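Reopening this one. Same input as before:
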Amino acid sequence: MNVPIGEETVPNEVFTLKDVSVYYGANLAVQNVNLPVYENEITALIGPSGCGKSTILRSLNRMNDLIPGAKVTGEVLYHGQDVYGSDVDPVQVRKTIGMVFQKPNPFPKSIFENIAFGPKTLGVKGNMDDIVEQALRGAALWDEVKDRLKDNAFGMSGGQQQRLCIARAIAVQPEVILMDEPCSALDPVSTFKIEDLMNELKKDYTIVIVTHNMQQAARVADRTAFFTVASDDAAGSRIGVLVEHDKTDKIFSSPANQKTLDYVTGRFG
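Same output, byte for byte:
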């Protein structure tokens, strides 16, 4: 249920990040991020390389747990519950909060088995043929592959493989889809297909996307968060920080911070 504030209706917060910092060993990678992510919206994380965008994205579904020495402090609240709480199962977190990576990474299996793998592993109930078809339809891929479901997924084009990975993510019925540079390895035609797909998917899912492509953020995102890199001269290190977060049109037309303006107008980064 959306909450009206004045004349504006603000969607429910799916994530609330409170003073989130991420360390890799003793090195501080990103510091004190405070960020809301709203329901059925696309939130884009933009900024120069090394500013912590992907690090923050991976903190949302505890993918950083898989990196030796990684530590997250602060609170990553998902519907008010800290996903790093001692009683929280990270496997269940990753089922609810799916992820699509920079490069398409289909399994060396058939198209059908790529989609069926997650539901089978997690014991999802239902007819597997229907589950696979529904996931492929959700990823706008069914009509292209329905006659070759037994074919190896490696025979698909790069754009099809990425949509297959999106279908694989939604097959386990997540609420959130995280996308880490999902179009960086794709040609412009495949990129526009993925962008169209994102706009369809946000009707049913909340999406957070990391992108270096500012035009892409401007095209698809409802809200945009700009990160940059701050130098710690004493420690001789560079630390990612969140500069500002707002509706995308405001970030690109009249940002509140000069650093954001400099970045979106190409003056640095």
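So the earlier flakiness isn't reproducible anymore. For the record, The chain has one domain: 12-264.
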